[in-house]
UniProtKB/TrEMBL annotation:
Pfam families: EF1_GNE. The lineage of its organism: Eukaryota, Metazoa, Chordata, Craniata, Vertebrata. GO terms for molecular function: guanyl-nucleotide exchange factor activity; translation elongation factor activity. Keywords: Elongation factor, Protein biosynthesis. SMART domains: EF1_GNE. This is Translation elongation factor EF1B beta/delta subunit guanine nucleotide exchange domain-containing protein. Gene3D superfamilies: 3.30.70.60. Residues 55-95 are annotated as: Disordered. GO terms for cellular component: cytosol; eukaryotic translation elongation factor 1 complex. InterPro entries: eEF-1beta-like_sf (IPR036219), EF1B_bsu/dsu (IPR049720), EF1B_bsu/dsu_GNE (IPR014038), Transl_elong_EF1B/ribsomal_bS6 (IPR014717), Transl_elong_EF1B_B/D_CS (IPR001326). Residues 69-86 have a biased composition (Acidic residues).
Length: 192
């Protein structure tokens, strides 16, 4: 059901949207059909810049005139904008998480675990690494990769929930097996 908000946006659009914007064109045609009933539609008609998502700057002419007088507040190097964009991304993630509690930030890590030498029992090394148990840690496939001179390293794929498991925590727990592990590196990291 159209409202006065639709009327405000409709009056700001000077011509029908292009055909490739099919949803906007359908909306435009729909509001056009209410030409005679615009005054009786529900809602309160506000300035165009008052509609839309919260915490978004008003870019319409009425909102832009207020900001023209305050050029002193602009940071021309963008440092505040970067901080605000990070905060905005974080706030956006938190709002999505509040709406959908099943949404969890996850990362896929490919770990390179290097043994001390070619005589290290790699089956026991993998067993030790798989014994590390954390809430939010899921291990997947693993393989042995030849490093050189008969020495192999273990590559193991794991998926972690970012809020529960960090790569530093994994490194500490894996390198605690000093009998088998010389070092551990994160070979690949990607957000899921």
């Amino acid at each position: 059901v159209p409202s006065k908000a639709d009327v405000a946006v409709f009056e700001a659009v000077f011509h029908p949207p292009l055909a490739n914007l099919c949803h906007a064109l359908r909306w435009y045609s729909h509001i056009t059909s209410y030409e005679k009933e615009k005054a009786s539609l529900s809602g309160v008609k506000k300035a165009l810049g008052k509609y839309g998502p919260a915490n978004v700057a008003d870019t319409t002419e009425s909102g832009a005139t207020d900001s023209k007088d305050n050029d002193d507040d602009i940071d021309h190097f963008g440092s505040e904008e970067e901080d605000e964009s990070e905060e905005a991304k974080s706030a956006q993630y938190e709002s999505k998480k509040a709406i959908n509690p099943d949404l969890v930030a996850k990362s896929s890590n490919l770990l390179d675990v290097k043994p001390w030498d070619g005589e290290t029992d790699l089956a026991k090394l993998e067993e030790c690494i798989r014994s590390v148990q954390e809430d939010g840690l899921v291990r997947a496939s693993s393989k042995l990769v030849l490093v050189g001179y008969g020495i192999k390293k273990l590559q193991i794929q794991c998926i972690v929930e970012d809020d529960k498991v960090g790569t530093n925590m994994l490194e500490e727990q894996i390198t605690a097996f000093v009998k088998y592990v010389q070092s551990m590196d994160v070979a690949a990291f990607s957000k899921i």
